[in-house]
Amino acid sequence: MATDSIRKCWRRLFSCLSFNRNSNETVRVPLLRSSQHGGHNVVSNKDYESLDYDRCWNKPYLDYRERYEKQHSDRKLEILQWIMTFAIGFLTGMVALYIDLIVKLLSDWKFGTVDKSILQCSKDGCLVISLLYLLLFNVAFVIVAACLTIYEPVAGGSGIPEIKCYLNGIKIPRIARLQTLVAKSVGVLFSVAGGLFVGKEGPMIHSGAIIGSGLPQLQSITLKKINSKYSYFRTDRDKRDFVSGGAAAGVAAAFGAPIGGVLFSLEEGSSFWNQKLTWRTFFCSMAATFSLNFFLSGIDSNSWGYFYLPGLIDFGTFECQSEKTTGCHLWSAVDLFIFVIMGFIGGCLGAIFNTLNKSLSLHRMINVNPKHKIFRLLEAILVAMVTTTIAFVSAMTLGQCRKIPLKPSIINSTRSSVELTVRDYFCEDGYYNDMATLFFNPQEIAIKQLFHQAGTFSMPSLAIFFILFFFLACWTYGVSVPSGLFVPSLLCGAAYGRFVALFLEQVFGYKTVYSGTYALVGAAAFLGGVVRMTISLTVILIESTNEISYGLPIMLVLMVAKWSGDLFNEGLYDIHINLKSVPLLEWDPPTEAARMKAKAIMDSRLKVVFPQTRVASLIRLLKTTAHNVFPVVTAARDDCSAVTLVGPSQEADLQEQDDVECFVNQNNSNQDGDGNPIELLQRNLPMKFEGMILRSQLVTLLKNHAWYKENVEEPPRDTVSYEEFITDYPRYPDIYDLQIPTLDGEALVDVGAYLNPCPYTVYPETTVSQVFHLFRGMGLRHLPVVCHKGELKGIITRHNLTHEFLEEKIHEQNQEH
Amino acid sequence: MATDSIRKCWRRLFSCLSFNRNSNETVRVPLLRSSQHGGHNVVSNKDYESLDYDRCWNKPYLDYRERYEKQHSDRKLEILQWIMTFAIGFLTGMVALYIDLIVKLLSDWKFGTVDKSILQCSKDGCLVISLLYLLLFNVAFVIVAACLTIYEPVAGGSGIPEIKCYLNGIKIPRIARLQTLVAKSVGVLFSVAGGLFVGKEGPMIHSGAIIGSGLPQLQSITLKKINSKYSYFRTDRDKRDFVSGGAAAGVAAAFGAPIGGVLFSLEEGSSFWNQKLTWRTFFCSMAATFSLNFFLSGIDSNSWGYFYLPGLIDFGTFECQSEKTTGCHLWSAVDLFIFVIMGFIGGCLGAIFNTLNKSLSLHRMINVNPKHKIFRLLEAILVAMVTTTIAFVSAMTLGQCRKIPLKPSIINSTRSSVELTVRDYFCEDGYYNDMATLFFNPQEIAIKQLFHQAGTFSMPSLAIFFILFFFLACWTYGVSVPSGLFVPSLLCGAAYGRFVALFLEQVFGYKTVYSGTYALVGAAAFLGGVVRMTISLTVILIESTNEISYGLPIMLVLMVAKWSGDLFNEGLYDIHINLKSVPLLEWDPPTEAARMKAKAIMDSRLKVVFPQTRVASLIRLLKTTAHNVFPVVTAARDDCSAVTLVGPSQEADLQEQDDVECFVNQNNSNQDGDGNPIELLQRNLPMKFEGMILRSQLVTLLKNHAWYKENVEEPPRDTVSYEEFITDYPRYPDIYDLQIPTLDGEALVDVGAYLNPCPYTVYPETTVSQVFHLFRGMGLRHLPVVCHKGELKGIITRHNLTHEFLEEKIHEQNQEH
User: Its family (chains A, B) (predicted)?
Assistant: First the structure.
């Protein structure tokens, strides 16, 4: 209960604050309602259209299926899918490879110059010049990254929130374009090489998703020249399946974790489980992991044809140093209890991180006008300068010089041995600076050192490093550069874990079995506290360590960290999704929703069309509303009890009553004059539900001039084919852009031939819980509410099912009682 | 296309053959249709009731929710669920531990005696006596196992097909009882110790599932004394969630593969993905793995508090012997091509195995009367004797004596070192018998030897071992003893893989990177060919080897093996499910189903009730039909177009027309005399759909005397509460067992107050593809078909959606055109 009330408080606070942004609208305005307020809101809500996972089984599609089945064997499409899947995995692996290599190159260049200068200046006392060198490099790199991000704002951040939204069924504009891929994958090179506390893994996942989304289309909106007639996978459904695969491949390449990748795309996205799809996703992950592995192993040791470097991050083999007689242990039952406490603290730390980052992001959103791009650039430069200076100065003044161990610190990687570099800045020969080793190594190397190097960091250094890194990383995430969150969180958490191990040893005299385990557990605890992922994160970490026996501690710690973090706020990805007021659907509806009915949440202000509609009316309808779907109705012949089309939830705003009109006309020969929808609506007459038609379909019909003269010809059957409907996928022309010849008013469109006659429907008395599971489980976009008599009562969209909307409704309902 | 036709041929052949079993019924008789033929079929079809994953949101349940929410916090139930989940995992781990320990004990006892005798007799030349000793032990052990299985037949086999059916949504009687658990877990000790070629892993998974199903109920049907009033989880939905957890825990304990366990229960069962449930399942797996691990590690080396033995099967660490400079490789790109071929052959071998086993099982079903239990016992004894004799004689005569290597063959287990025992039967001192080493070691040890011992087996020995083991294992699976399939298949496949490695080396001179990899790949190929699992099997094998870099070869091989096996037949589990004619729902409907409509497959012979029904009519209805659900209808007030209640698919059998009557009466005050259902049906009048009521609910209403006097009293509201409805869960009383006082004919039951008013429905024109996904995705049991006017047209159950039924319908449809 405490959790709920704390979270509710937060939500209320932020829904107040976010009021400022959306001019005069509250955050969660459902599409259908908001569109009645005029132009400017329509656009902002149109930003978040739903994807349609359910196929539209209308007549053109069924005809297409029949034709297709006659021409092709079942196998062809399946083989194509597998080839595409492999290509996505392979390309994602290649993108990861290129990012890894270029980042290394840039870093080597930078550190090569700076190292030399420091070595020189430590003697000559001109360290300010070294700092200036470093600043010059870092600021220059960050400027490149920031400029790319400002040019293509969707490329900022980690991209994981956006992927999560996409897989949840929300179309986010520009998220999956070729130019976003370029901006992201080039930008991340420079933000990582620029010494910012960001990771390259999130952007890699985003890159994989873009490849998954774009490649099977064989066309590009950025480069209009890339366009083929090949149109097998041009539906939201197919696209989303490939995006799942691409995202999984991204995780797989980044962490060498193919199983974790599959679970990531399941956990973040899917609402259903399909064996075939999951197996294909897994194949995609494997293709990414092992194509990366192949090239990385080849380039690394020039032994082509072998596969031993499992991914970009490799935590190395945890090899215990204990005596062999009783077997080798990495942790004991006693440690488990300490891990639970560490998990709790990690969750709290994560919650603090999230709260700070949320306030910062909110501050940015409210105070920085998106048009003033220069501010965003300046902030990025400022972050780069502050980060560099703090790292440099703290290493110089606060780091401890420690003796370099005689035997070189070789850490067995999973299948190869890598020597870890310590940084000897500001120290005598034979000594190294522990703070500099953490700050000036690539983050992956620093993590490995915390995991494996026993006794090489002092407690004060770890504590200072943790605090500085914590705040700087918090500031950085949200600056407009491509910036992952995984690896910085792991590094931060590893320092925390290592600190705990030292603390236990030095203060309580408790000798831990293996201090690397503590670093790993600390990393898991902090990362878990920040992102609140469960099963996929566990598996990613198990796979990265290649050590199944870490399963229990990692799971336990993530569970506790998620629980303790959830007491205060949500995961960071969810926070950023909420800040953008994206209508994300959670896993389950609120428990109180069981007592609510569909009729309480549905939108009952409807814009309907009749099976035969005048062209002029259709154009007017499309131009004046932003709805993406229109129910098709006929007048019911018997006058049953009166139907209130203005639903109970909207009685209050009567001044908008005039909006509830229907811009349609009808020419259904069954009706003799009294079936005019306006009349139906005004007289509250029942409307028999016939089916649904999408805006995109209506636009395509108009574009293809699919009309006929009233009372002159028979309605033409099937003049517009399925292929014509998907030609413009995914961006259908705007109604304003259509060239429609002037017609005499009698032309009619035979909507009835193209509607989806049998969508899933629910009853007005269906509980919200059932509605929610149907909507989420089937991946719907619109759900008509039809009463037991077959009359249309309303429509439910994603906006009517978000937790915020439902909680408000529950609140209203409770107040009524 | 070839695949399909081959498989269809098989299916037709077997549907003809299986005709013998079901007296005079074809195999796939849908519940609603079959019930019209009389008593004996009703029983056989009742065997396969569906489970209901969708909650029944009727009034009593809503009231209960409201009451519950007022009394309890949200958290309580969640905490209870987690505690239960932990308990299930822990107990499953303990069962695995007990099985493992006792099997070891029994084996040690047996081999202790036999070893001594062989040592003695090798000198004295009395090896027949040693064989007799061995026979005595094995036959005695197998008799125990067989007797337990004959006493409780569901305990036979691996139990995985049954679990798969259960998770698919089919209730299989006796599958989850305490006495089944006892029979299975005791029986498997003796079948494994009895030297049969069976594994203990399948039974372990079944045990886990039983614990998952039984424990949260806190009652037992076997021991009626165990019964508590505690009734939180007494719905199909909750139970199935726990069974998923239990099955996952079983896999996790058996293979030390917690992630594989979760994926197993997802792949075999779930049709949807829920983050919370998956996380809980994962927790259950982890609890099982690590509680087993804790005790095993403690008992093994007496070092309590550590966790290093990851599961019952442990394939040991694959440590390459190649030079360290270029890193360590376990396989190369060239090997991959060979693996693909091995996968293909493995798939074919698996298909042969399955075909043979299918013919054998069919032979058993047709020729052995289930009542003649003695035959089943004799067969088990025969198998035990033949297996023992063949193993003994072939080891004696065909095995090669090879020199025992000087340094002991220690294989590093994941975290401990185990010395592998070679068997020196029939050889001189310092030599061992390679065939005996394979036959007379526990299968897990034999697998480890094939995986790790380089060059210790001769090609002829491997070939002979493979052939003998293949046929004996094929015969054994299906004999009435508890018998797993995983480990025998792995052993058989490992011999095949090792043979390939030797073959390549000796014939082509191709030096494999690491011959253990070939054994592993061979094991995966053969097991994949037999069971045709995909992602879960891959993950289980990766986890068992604790080597992430085997991901690619294992996945590739399983993919190819599944594909090549699928050319010929289905996986063995599916074959056994089909043999029992269980109406399992596949992942997707046949592609042709896209062109079919719901009205073509629905059952339109309906037995309906009215909202107010006479008690006598209800009793008659329940006694004369076996339906598990009854639609509730009222007469539609307007006479729209006539509705044909005898659907188009049944016009042929007109002699059954008289069956289409309604044993109901009605007293709906809205109707004035002409609403009699019989009349409705005879006059083909439309029936307005009001909701659904379950047989169990009607029985409960009658049991609780929930009726009122006609025209005397008001219908009483809510006299039967939700708690009363679930008192008898899961076995509701039979209508014949109810004690109903004699009433004057006017008592009525207010069915309307207890019906589920808003189930999911579909239109008659909805495509079968949509229907299928709704039914499977939401885990439904009954799906009413309601037309756009709100009139009930038919009902779809699981039987109308099996591939066999749909393919027949498609066939009919194609013939019509």
Answer: Belongs to the chloride channel (TC 2.A.49) family.
